[in-house]
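Lecture notes, unit on protein representations.

Consider one protein chain, 213 amino acids long.
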Amino acid sequence: MILRNMTQILLIRHAVNDWVKTGKLAGWTPEVHLNDLGNAQAAALGERLSKVKLHAIYSSPLERTVETADAIAQHHPKLTLQTWDAIGEVGYGQWQGKKLSRLRKNKLWANVVNYPTRVQFPEGETMRGAQARAVDALETLQKRHPRQTVVVVSHSDLIKMMVAHYLGVHLDLFQRIVISPASITTIHLGSGMPFIQCVNDTSHNPTEETKKD
């Protein structure tokens, strides 16, 4: 339900992929695609939103987000999927593609976990900067699509940062928010106070067992 005179933004994390099995930090690594379960999750998302009146679908430009968004767009043939760097993954710089087991031994890791406001990834982005661009993107969408419903397919940390901002939660605490693969988080933005309608809705997600049926 859209609150009166507000833009409804459906924040969706991309579905699962096999990159996590590598134990590496994906970031903007190309050619990371959904696996079988991820495709099933994306299909379930598409079905879940098939009866919702959508006015626009935006996606991070990475393959795993575009494939998730495509599964939704298939049910809304009048809409054109739009990719947008502003809702893309955090720029991890030299950390991209590195083993997480080795990154955890880096002195910077403690700040990534406990004080992300003090973190800039080597040759990459600050966490503060990533949050600012993500929030600025949502504010732009609110102005671009007043009183409409917009899908935004993005990444876990970006969505956590957006939710933290609109909840008034300090960025240093944003990792306390859980955003699961293929989840839906609903935010309402207007000219005044923002409202968070739900966070991390995964009720539509199939399990491994369901996928095999």
